[in-house]
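User: Just a sanity check before I run the rest of the batch. Below are the C-alpha cells for the first item. I only need the designed sequence back.
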C-alpha cells in the first residue's frame, strides 16, 4: 500500500498534528508514504523526523497549476494507490489529477464545521471524484450528509492524542517563564486568532470573572489575523496586566499542564483537538456547546459547556469550575480515562488504515 498525503497548511495547527501522528503510526506498520506539503512549512520540516519523504510545493490554491504539475510528476514516480487530501485546497488538486487520468482512490479529510457548498464545484470535488470523506466528528458527518453526500461514503474518525506525553512535573516551569505566579489561577485558551475561535467573547467574559476572582490571569496562545484587534480590546477593557497573548507555542504538551483551567470559546468547531490534548493532561475544561465539541466534552461529566458567543454564559461556566475545584478535578480524571479509550493515536491510525484497506480491497 502506497499513500500520498497532501496538506497545504502554512502553520502548525490541529490538522498538521493529526497528520504527523497518522504518518508516524502508518510508518510503524511499514506503509509506504509520501507527503506533499507547503514549502518551508512546519509540517514539511517535522515529517523529516519520521523519515517520510517530502515534496515541498506552494499549494496556494486548487487552481495552482505549478503545484498540479509537480504533483503529477510525483504521482508518476511514487505511483500511489491512494491520495489522502487533508484539506479542501489539496482535495481540489487531487481531483484534477484524477480527472486527467490518474486511476487511484481519493480520500478527503473534513475537519471543519463549515458548509462545503461555498465552493461552486463542491459536488464535483466531494460527491463525484472523492471515494471517501473522513469526518472528524459525527457532527461534521451529519452536516456533509445534509448537504448531499452519500452516507455510505462518509466515515467518522476521531482525532487521536498521545497520552504518553503527560508531563505533570513541568506544571509551573513554563507558566513562570511566561510571567505567571504559582499562586495565580491561570486560565488558558489555545487556538488560531480567527473570528470563529471566539477569543473576543472570552476576553469580555474574563473581565466579568475578575470582579469576583481578581487572582485570575488569562493566557491566549496562538497567532492569527485578529491579534491586533484583540490587543486593542484588551487595552480598552483595562486588562493589559491580566491577559497575555503568548503567540505561537510549538510544544503544547509542555504548556498545558501549567493551566488551572482551559477555556475553548469557539463559535464553530469540527471537534477541537486541543481539548483532547488538555484532557490528556487532566486539565479541567470549559468549552462552548457547538459543532463536535459535545462529542469530546460531556457536560457535567468531563467538563463544563456553555452557549457559544455569550460572554456571561462563559463567565458562569468558569465560575462553576472555580467554585467546585474537587468536581472539576474529578471531571478531568474522567476526561483522561475517556481520551485513553476513545481518542488515542493508536485508535485514530487503526481506523484510518481500515478506511484505506476497505477502499482498496473493494
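Assistant: Here's the designed sequence for the first item:
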Amino acid at each position: 500500500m502506497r499513500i500520498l498525503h497532501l496538506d497545504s497548511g502554512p502553520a502548525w495547527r490541529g490538522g498538521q498534528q493529526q497528520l504527523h501522528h497518522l504518518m508516524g503510526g502508518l510508518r510503524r506498520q511499514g506503509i509506504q508514504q509520501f507527503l506533499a506539503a507547503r514549502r518551508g512549512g512546519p509540517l514539511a520540516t517535522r515529517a523529516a523526523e519520521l523519515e517520510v519523504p517530502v515534496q515541498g510545493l506552494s499549494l496556494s490554491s486548487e487552481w495552482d497549476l505549478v503545484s498540479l504539475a509537480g504533483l503529477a510528476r510525483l504521482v508518476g514516480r511514487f505511483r500511489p494507490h491512494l491520495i489522502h487530501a487533508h484539506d479542501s485546497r489539496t482535495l481540489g488538486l487531487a481531483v484534477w489529477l484524477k480527472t486527467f487520468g490518474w486511476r487511484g482512490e481519493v480520500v478527503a479529510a473534513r475537519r471543519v464545521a463549515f458548509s462545503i457548498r461555498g465552493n461552486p464545484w463542491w459536488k464535483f470535488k466531494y460527491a463525484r471524484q472523492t471515494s471517501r470523506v473522513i469526518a472528524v466528528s459525527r457532527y461534521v458527518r451529519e452536516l456533509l450528509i445534509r448537504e448531499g453526500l452519500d452516507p455510505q461514503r462518509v466515515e467518522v474518525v476521531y482525532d487521536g492524542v498521545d497520552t504518553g506525553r503527560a508531563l505533570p512535573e513541568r506544571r509551573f516551569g513554563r507558566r513562570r517563564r511566561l510571567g505567571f505566579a504559582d499562586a495565580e489561577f491561570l486560565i488558558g485558551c489555545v487556538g488560531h486568532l480567527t473570528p470563529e475561535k471566539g477569543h473576543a467573547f472570552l476576553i469580555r467574559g474574563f473581565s466579568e470573572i475578575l470582579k469576583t476572582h481578581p487572582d485570575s490571569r488569562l493566557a491566549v496562545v496562538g497567532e492569527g489575523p485578529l491579534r491586533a484587534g484583540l490587543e486593542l480590546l484588551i487595552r480598552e477593557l483595562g486588562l493589559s496586566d491580566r491577559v497575555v497573548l503568548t503567540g505561537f507555542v510549538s510544544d503544547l504538551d509542555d504548556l498545558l499542564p501549567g493551566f488551572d483551567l482551559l477555556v475553548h470559546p469557539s463559535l464553530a468547531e469540527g471537534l477541537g483537538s486541543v481539548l483532547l490534548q488538555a484532557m490528556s493532561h487532566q486539565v479541567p475544561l470549559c468549552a462552548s456547546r457547538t459543532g463536535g465539541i459535545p462529542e469530546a466534552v460531556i457536560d457535567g461529566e468531563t467538563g463544563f459547556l456553555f452557549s457559544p458567543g455569550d460572554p456571561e454564559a462563559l463567565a458562569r461556566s468558569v465560575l462553576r469550575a472555580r467554585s467546585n475545584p474537587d468536581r472539576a478535578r474529578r471531571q478531568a480524571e474522567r476526561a483522561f480515562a475517556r481520551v485513553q479509550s476513545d481518542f488515542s493515536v493508536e485508535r485514530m491510525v487503526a481506523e484510518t488504515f481500515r478506511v484505506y484497506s476497505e477502499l482498496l480491497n473493494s
